[in-house]
Amino acid sequence: MRIVFIHYHLQPGGVTKVILNTVKALEQSPSFKLLILCGEAPPSSLEINTPVKVIKGLAYEGKRPQNISAQELKKEILKVSKSVFGTFPDIFHVHNHNLGKNLLLPQVVYGLAQEGFPLFLHIHDFAEDGRPGNYQLLLKHLGENNFENLSTYLYPQGPHLHYLFLTSRDIKFFQYAGGSSNLHHLPNPIQNTFFSAKLEKNIFPRQRLWLYPTRGIRRKNIGELIFWSTQARANDVFATTLGPQNPLQRPYFKLWKNFAQTHNLPLHLELANTYPYEQLLKEAHFCLTTSITEGFGLVFLEPWLNNKALFGRDLPEITRDFKEKEIKLPYLYPSLKISLNKLNQNLLHQKIHTKIKSLFALYSLPLKQDFIDKTISNWTQNKQIDFGKLDEELQMQVLEKIIKHKEKIFNLPENIDYHLIEENKKKIEKNFSLSNYIFKLKNIYLEATNKQSKLEGFADSKRLLECFLSPENLSLLKIDEV
Length: 482
Hints:
Layout: E1 2-6, H1 14-26, E2 33-38, E3 52-54, H2 70-85, E4 91-95, H3 105-114, E5 119-123, H4 132-141, H5 147-154, E6 161-165, H6 168-176, E7 183-185, E8 208-212, H7 222-230, E9 236-240, H8 250-262, E10 267-268, H9 277-283, E11 286-289, H10 302-305, E12 310-313, H11 316-323, E13 332-333, E14 337-339, H12 345-362, H13 369-379, E15 384-386, H14 392-404, H15 418-431, H16 434-446, H17 461-468, H18 476-481
Parallel strand pairs: 1-2, 1-4, 2-3, 4-5, 5-6, 6-7, 8-9, 8-11, 9-10, 11-12, 12-13
Antiparallel strand pairs: 14-15
Helix pairs in contact: 1-16, 2-3, 7-14
């Protein structure tokens, strides 16, 4: 079976890791012949035997040649593929064609689909989910400001087209949008971290470290980590591993850094800049997450593989898939309800109105007043609000009052079930191993042997927007980040 993998680049990142792990595993099967096409020169040491060909038209929009058409790019992809295999490939496996990172790629995908080539469209992320800038480019240049036109290019349907999704939630949303066949749930594979035997436990002697392994961007909800540091017992200390690389994110992170220092909280941000990450992880009492949105949800699995329990915010639409595999997550909470009298409610309503109105305008969607009313009602039931719905300014108002009055509202977990750690570890290794991933992928590939060229409509991108822009899925932090 001849397979061509297509992505914008092979620089370090989540998608690249999935592609390289897949290729390394498939190289062990003589029945597979592989090729990777990307838009820029890859790093020198990829540790794969599969050929990598650079086609500059596949690069990000700002990097690709602007004088090339989608038709020309499609021809070059077919030409290079045929030159490597001696014939056309059996499958094109394309990652994140729908993100708006390259305006030609959705048109190329549509053109290949029209010609009857089996396509596996691997959706890691959606432009409809918190990427209005990308979506505007797609809507303007591909859709000519028409949602139906855009949907035709982004999400074509047909018996020879297969969609791969990381979560069952994404499949549910895609089905709501009209995706009806060849929809596959393919969670990312994860691998264990192996520690050096020389590491010693000496960073925080006689203290309990609550470690948030994250890069501190806004959707990671650092304010909620700060909240838990206000609830700490005498020997508790909290830390994140890294800070944001994006310069637009750094000012918000610095706000929290200054806040923690001003109030003398037991918190260390960017601690992996000082100590090795694996040493921090080994010393952690609990791992912790307060993130308000995740793609696959690696954060919910990885700690257990490293013999650590996980405490923090649950994202039920993501963790549902894990719980169905009997992975138990007893130390997670679905929301952190705070009394509305701890913040300026007029300011809250003003922010909801202003920011939702702006968000819908960015997506070129009309906004009905009742949507804002429904959002306020959904968020403020029983005179409470989930702390994760607030932005930094409102979170700081809440925290100032809690610190001032030395309030202890919620308790951190006292004990760790070490038997549960072992049980979860076994179940994660069984269900989310690379070998299990490859077994599923091979079986999905086998479904593509019956080539048919007829396109059968499209999934509606506008209906996907309805899913991602529902009151339940929005928060001020998430709106602000777009």
